[in-house]
Amino acid sequence: MSRLFGSVRARATLAATLVVAVALVAAGTAVLLSLRSNLLGEAGTQAERSARQVATELAVGTAYADLSLDVDDRPVQVVDEDGALVAASEDLERISGTGVDAVKPQPSASPSAADGADDGADDDADDEEDEAREILDPGEVGGRITVSDGSATIDGDTEDYRFAAVPVKTDDRGTLTVYAGAPLSAEHGAVNTALTVMLIGFPLLLAVVAWVTWLVTRRALRPVEGIRREMAAITASEDLARRVPVPGTHDEVARLATTTNETLAALEASVERQRGFVADASHELRSPIASLRTQLEVAAAHPELLDLEGAVADTVRLQRLAADLLLLARLDAGERPADARIDLAALAREAAEGRAGVSVRGEDAVRVAGSRGQLGRVLANLLDNAQRHARSAVRVSVRRDGDTAVVAVVDDGEGVPAADRERIFERFVRLDAARSRDDGGAGLGLAIARDVAVRHGGTLTVHDAPAGGALFELRLPGARARTARDG
Q1: CB 146 within 8 A of CB 165
Q2: How many Å apart are CA 253 and CA 260, to the nearest integer?
Q3: How far apart are CA 429 and CA 440, in angstroms?
Q4: What is the pTM of this model?
Q5: What is the pLDDT of residue 480?
Q6: Are 151 and 159 in contact (CB under 8 A)?
Q7: Among 435, 439, 424, which Cα is nearest to 470's?
Q8: CATH of the domain spanning 340-486, picked from 3.10.129.10, 3.30.70.100, 3.30.565.10, 3.40.50.1400
Q9: For domain 252-332, is the CATH number 1.10.3720.10?
Q10: How would residue 107 be classed by pLDDT, with cut points 50, 70 and 90?
Q11: Are 406 and 400 in contact, with CB atoms under 8 Å apart?
């Protein structure tokens, strides 16, 4: 059960069904209440119409025996001021809800005799009742209608009724009240029928909603299941060249599949770069290690043949290569540079100190924020590369360009071909001219320089120098600009 409702399809179906169920219950309740209210109002109108008809007859002096009391077999009562039943439907056997339970008319005293019995008492009672009830003129039918619910038995049939009470003032019989009822069987039947239809139809409708939602969500999630299966297969096979299927729906699922394939492509490229890096690093490490081992083995057999300077050079080369690989690993791991303030002009002069043919020209206090060690490595790598290719001189200039610090390293060599200006920043890449030199390096210097520049929010590019040769331009955000951006 928990696995079933752990499914997105099951949860979506359950949610849709519950929402529709709540809506149907609310709508059904509103319909039933509205239907009942309308039918009760209609019954009250019919009862009032019947009561007014009898009241109108009384107002014009119609005798009790001649009243229209048995129209449509509805219960009718006529009650005098004393609450005595003076007229009623012929077949009325029982009644409730009107306040008068009598069903057979009672003989009443004549109005003149009643008035002569106690004029003072009747006058006082009339004054008190007039304050509580509508005051009518002789021959006038009242406008205030009282509605109540009850039941009545007519000729053996018992039903529920809505009663309307209509007062009427007569000339000779005082104020009378006519109670007339309208049956509620139509209201009960309609409400019961509507309720039965709802009790049968709502479950069927909910079943249809659940079934349609289940089918629609299955169809919508089918591509997701395909993506999941393919990702599971890729994980099991470790084949990053595979891709998940992209549905042609152009919706969120299609975008998910496209993003997943882009992630797989980036991961594949990263793994390939890592494999290439490991292979190149192994190749570069093998050469100095093999050379150093050969020299040590020769020295062990013939101490007089030991090439100490060569062994030291191989050791230094091996040490520099290990340091470069370690720095690249730290950069790939996302190590954030320090946020120290550095005078880039002073750092350039330090890097150029002791280098033959290198001149530095720059403004004072061109400050940037970052790691002094890493930026020093960038300048050293650029100078190493420039000296390796220069014919006679290397010029370094440091300046401001708005909020940007710019370092330009220019050599008077042959320059870099346009086709190779991005490739030289790849790891372990060396052009043929560099490979022909004994001190060509491992091809990591420019790659490290660009990675450090990017980590500091800057750029490193190469162009043709105005006087010939190569121009390497390092651009870094100034200290204040970088601090504002990071904040």
Answers
A1: yes
A2: 10
A3: 11
A4: 0.51
A5: 63
A6: yes
A7: 424
A8: 3.30.565.10
A9: no
A10: low
A11: yes
